[in-house]
Fold this protein.
Amino acid sequence: MQVFGGFTQYVAVFENEAFWSSIGRVLLFGAVQVPIMLGIALILALLLDSPLVRGSKFFRLAFFAPYAVPSVIAAIMWGFLYSPNLSPFTGVTQSVDFLSAGNVLWSIANVVTWVYVGYNMLIIYSALLAIPSEIYEAARLDGASQLRIAWSIKIPLVVPALVLTGIFSIIGTLQLLAEPQVFQSFTSAVTSTFTPNLTIYSTASVPNISLAAAMSVVLALATFVLSFTVLKLTQRRTAA
Amino acid sequence: MTATSPRPAKTEKARRVGRDTAHSGIRESAASRTIAMAVMIVATLYFLTPIWWLLVASSKTRSDFTTTAPLWFADFALFDNIAALFDYRNAVFLRWLGNSALYAGVGALLATIIAAMAGYAIAKYSFRGRELLFNIILGGVLVPATALALPLFLLFSQVGATNTIWAVFLPSLVSPFGVYLSRIYAAASVPDEIVEAARIDGAGEVRTFFTVATRLMAPALVTIFLFQFVAIWNNFFLPLIMLRDESLFPVTLGLYVWNTQVSQIPDIRALVIVGSLLSIIPLILTFLGLQRFWQSGLASGGLK
Amino acid sequence: MAITTVARAGAMAALAALALTACSTGGTDAPGAAGGDCAPSDGPVELTFTSWLPGIDEAVAIWNDENPDVQVTVQTGPNGNGGTYQNFFNQLEAGNAPDLGQIEFDALPNFRVQDGLENIAACEGIVEAESQFVDWTWSQVTFGEEDAVYAIPQDTGPMALFYRADLFEAAGIEIPETWEDYRAAAAQIREEGGYINNFSQSDINAFAGLVWQTGGEWFTNDGDAWEVSLTGDESLQVAEYWQGMIEDDLVAKYPPWTDEWNAAYNSSEIWTWLSAVWGANTILSGAPDTAGNWAVAPMPQWEAGESAAGNWGGSTTAVLKGSDHPYEAAQFALWLNTDADALTAMNRTAQIYPATVEGADLPVFSEGVEFYGGQKIYEVFAAAGAEVDPDFTWGPTMTQVYNDVADGFSGALSGSGTLMDALESGQASTISALEAASIPVKE
């Protein structure tokens, strides 16, 4: 029995506190994790591209390898590494509770960072490779340090790649699902409404499919607005 | 979202920087070399320790797993564990590996071709609604995975295609990111003159694309293939919704299913750990294999 | 994260469908189908059966050999809340659900409310089968409706007290018979440096088992509307008891089903576990170093001399709405859950404990178990099964209840709020969840 219900479900979404606080939580997550992840990715990509590092082929593989680990499995592995008793680093995990309500968001951030740094690094790195070497050949002959070359030549040229990875990271953050879902089995600090996607998932399995669908539409719109805003802001800055 | 191609910029400014003496460059690079290598080694430890842990954990007997040092081998039972995994339920795990290889391999190949054609077309042809089309394609990445589950399932149900390989395979052929990357690379690396020349030589548009453009876009295509391969291989949400027949499962879904049974049949945990290890090995091998190809694609001057 | 676009593929068409879904109200019209007719089909029949029991195909193979005209194909998936229930709902919506599905007792009302179950009461031999099943299980599959049977009980989880016989003896502590004894024992064990139990923040159905034992009910349904009573007297009594244990640091707080939790049992840190019959195997595999040292006793009682028991877990085989062959499906479901060979096969591959009265007498349940010092532990569980209150009713939104109460319980364990607070907020959120799903609620 399907009746057009107007916007009643959308009204219910806006009144749903848990949904909005889950969005707030991932926004906080994204504001901290995305810059850190992209910063590391950029530094590693620049180092790989510089003549300072030997064996860059090996390092590239090593950094990218986590991307080959499915999110679910990555989360399970880190769950063990965080464990107070079973971790290889019990010295650390017994004094800091990585799975407590206050820390678990950042523990998940670390899992996401671990998986995706290599991936983002590769995108930035391929943008670096696309820079014709003549451009900084001259600077190098002039004796410019690698740091100067990186800062003044390479980074400005890979800004489009950074914007791209940044936007995809923002989208990914808003759609976090697998990692927190797995963490639910390690710690009850991850609630069923921890991220927007978890909220949608637990709403859909009530099943309150209509409300879950309305939440999805709102989340997609929010994602669009946010990534569009970031894009416009960065475009204005790079154009200036 | 607008495509912005990497273009040479600020070369003037670049030439002006760092007019130091030649000596300072050499002196600095000795110190920087050490720092750089230190950063690389720390990063390597960070990235590889968890995988090392998985390898070690896979090699342990069940009682050693909780009682011995997590980062070093105890009694080496890796091959016993693998044998137990392959033996479990008529080697269903091998079947899952095969399915994943099929979905990811063929799926990524076709997805790459489709994305390349779309990206090339958007880069090289001007037509009404070009930007709109491109933005709609990119909009696809904004939709949450959980949101698509039911609608996709209902669509496939209407054509009776749930619980078939098509239900997993067809949605895997779409790669908005691939289209994005193809467009950038096509714009940057396929000069209009070459396309013109091919046309003048009498080559049709399709032939031009396959003989001229794909060669110039090769490095980007390998990258798209690689990412799509990983994405399909790692995806379990879509198969979870679509598939009921165990013999169609990809390896991630199979492992997830086993993982949900761990509380009931705890012996399965060891299988999940060994299975996880085996499921990431093909991906690492694919990356290794493609890395050479990718390198040669770059070296042959596709982008320089 | 990032570009895992595969699931998002085909986005735009699907998004359009989605936006429409969001606009329609979540109607749950009352299902009208009564136990009308149920006739055999002509000619050979093929049935599909979705279950996540490991090795269920072995039992099904026996049926297929004996019934060449009714062939059953097994389909599998993750456990119910891991995705299979969601899949059932999707398939019911699309009209292509399997003929038969495994559904746990606590999820059955949800499927009933969503009109996902065929009433098989009119099918030959189904109503008559009532006497073969343990009392309380049958009321779970009829919902107390007249002329109605919505599923065949498969397995149960009668609860008892697993305890470390060696440690209790060495410390000179009596095996607790009442909850008062249990608390006293907890204090003594704490002095020995151990914990009597682990309070599981996420096994809300185990907590419900304790409330069940106490005689409480979380849900009642008078045929028109649901009454929610998470904050009923018995429920609060159980919550206050355990809240006291938590505040006095008498219970451990490991997240259950993790390796740490296993390790805590394996290292003798935790001395008892209030669990269901299937828990016997959990300990066996999770704490292998403690082999031979465990024993099983009936659950502690609120009043000395009582013998009330709770239940944790268990599932049914249901004929899902839209099956073309309800008669054959019902016959298969009945056979699967009553035939001695089928039950034995399912016990061997998945450790299920049958819901039939006779099932408790299968040879496998009459032997002593080495891990438990040779004790015939299944006698304890068979006795417990007979004491489970048949009136306990699950609600239609148990996933939500579990999630919400678990969120509150974890807060209570980390010191914010109490178990009673958790039940109170669970009560409120359950009522609003029911209302949001247009399910009538009695205030």
Remarks:
- Chain B touches chain A through 82 residues (CB under 8 Å).
